[in-house]
Every structure is written in structure tokens, then in C-alpha cells.
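Data deposition worksheet. Section B asks for the primary sequence of the deposited chain exactly as it was used as input, without tags or linkers unless they were present during the calculation. Section C holds the resulting structure in C-alpha cell form. Section D is free text for depositor observations; keep each observation to a single sentence. Incomplete worksheets are returned to the depositor.
Section A, Depositor: J.P.
Section B:
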Amino acid sequence: MDHSFPSTGRLAAIDYGTVRIGIAICDPDRILASPLEIYQVGQTARDEKYFKQLAKQERLVGFVVGLPIHCDGKESDKSRESRRFARWLHQQTELPVRMFDERFTTSAAKERLRSQSLTRQKKKKQLDAVAALVLLETFLESSRYHDGEVGHAIDQLTGDQEGLDR
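Section C:
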């Protein structure tokens, strides 16, 4: 599997969930990122069609999928689910996928939504897309700071993996 990740072009960040998937995208120069939508997970055929169409419509060159990691750096069952989804996404779209630590993205997204005058229902609806936005902004900032590839390839495990052996 090719793990090279393009340094320019539009990316979509995915805040993966088994029911809802938050999606954010950036411009081709990777300066601005914005929440796109929340996708309700459905049947496999519909999901395949949606992500292939998303990649084509938005002229994406890659995906960044959030990797849930415990505060101690260990991975979990949720990490494995995200990796499984990332592999599936790569197979469906044939685009490169990077896994990126999503610790604290939900709390940062909640903080951003708190300052907006929306109903609790609307804030809850937007949470996943805003979490994807935080993930993408963090990925882009980290890429600029480290002058290159950040995150992990789909099958590259992080840190101490005792948590995977449970």
C-alpha cells in the first residue's frame, strides 16, 4: 500500500463514528479549513458511493482520519475501528490516508460551539463537523510547523501498544 501523502491539494478530515462522520475540508493551498457536513453512516453501498463522490466532487488529494488515542498514548478498540475505516476509505477512493491524533478535538469543538448562539440541539448536530475542522486545522498547523509529513500511515501504530493486546 502506498503511504506517500501529497504536500499540496485539498484534504478532507474525518471525525469517524459508527453512526455519524464529521467532515471538514481545506482549500488547495491548505490555508483555510471549514466544516463541510455530518454524514449519517448507512448501508455499505451508499457509504461507498458517498465517499467516492465526495473525493471526486471536492477534488481531494487525500484524507486525514482522526485517531482516538488514550491520554497515555495507547490505542484502543476505537483506534482499531478508525484504522479499519481508514483502510476501507483508501480502498474505496484510492486516495492516501493519514491517521492523526484526535485527542482533545471534541473538547475544543465544544468550546468553539459554546461561544455560538445556537440551540443545544443545533450545537450537538454540528459537533462532529466542528471536531473534524479542529482535526484538520491541527493537522495543517502541525504540517507547517514540522515542514512535512505528520501523523501516521494507516497501519503504523503509535507509541506503546500494550493497549492493543487486550
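Section D:
The chain has one domain: 10-156.
Confidence is low (pLDDT under 50) at residues 160-166.
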